Amino acid sequence: MSKYGNLSEATYKKVCLSAMADQTARYIGGGNLPMPTVRIMMPALAELYADQPDLIVEKQMRYLNEYFNTESTAGDLLLGAMVAVEASKAPNASDISNALKVSLMGPLAGIGDSIFKVGGKVIFSAMAGYMALEGSLLGLLVCEIWALVTLACKYWFFNIGYTQGTNFVTTLADQLDLVTSTIGVLGLVVIGNAIPSTVKLTTKFNLAYGESVKPFQDILDSIFPYLLPCLLTYALYKALAVKGMTTIKLVYIVLACGLVLSLLGIC
Asked: What is the pLDDT of residues 144-201, one digit of tens each?
């Protein structure tokens, strides 16, 4: 027996790399399209039950028919635990694996989205965008660093999920609540700083008080600095939620509005 239990080292590595590399629809399972889960687990099932082809098909159908939707990076932690359960070759291994999946895919999705999708991606993207505006090529490097960090986390999560099994997955969720909250606050701080640094919007209106003329922008800045960039960012964020709106369409709308407002002397 190898150090990976009933799995050979070659099969374990194949399953681990498949879990790291499978990018189908950017989710694991995914409602009515759970094929990525089966594709990831298939090498393990084929080795564990090589003498029981009917059982392999039965387990494939179980995973194909079970809903599974979670964040792809943190989800590797759960996948590792699921493979470990199957590797135990317990009579009810698939039942345990699916129960574990259903109970923990929600919490892990929340943790993964907060850390990898909202927190890390927002922070590193903001850094990269600011560097790009400054004409620095380091922005591209920052994005690549975050991609490598995410890939390393996927590898580490799968290995920990497999070696520690269900105990690690169930206890880690509570411990990561503090990390999730901290990352969320940090993300908000970065976004709050990125808006005035990168979004440039001012008005050319002037207010006249008798013979005195004062730029309206100065009044706004004295009351609420960078109010217009904040309002513009909020409006664009809400616009993305409109049905049929895409990022490309929004870019063209912003360009058209900017051109018109500039020609009219408003901004």
From this structure: 888 888 888 888 888 888 887 655 555 555 555 565 566 566 666 666 676 777 777 8
Number of domains in the chain: 2
What tokens were used for 150? 């995410």
Q: DSSP per residue over 38-80, as a string?
A: HHHHHHHHHHHTTT-HHHHHHHHHHHHSS--EE-TTTHHHHHH
| Tens-digit pLDDT profile for residues 83-123 | 888 887 777 778 778 777 777 777 777 778 777 877 777 77
Provide the phi-psi class of 265: left if phi over 0, else alpha when psi is between -120 and 50, else beta: left
Q: Are residues 160 and 36 in the same domain?
A: yes
67 shares its domain with 52: yes
Check whether residue 207 and residue 95 sit in a common domain.
no
Phi and psi angles of residue 229, each rounded to the nearest 5 degrees, phi first: -60, -35
Which residues have C-beta within 8 Å of that of residue 151, sequence separation ≥ 6?
20
pTM, two decimals, is 0.60
Q: Does residue 43 sit in the same domain as residue 164?
A: yes
For residues 144 and 140, give the distance between their C-alpha atoms in angstroms, rounded to a whole number.
6
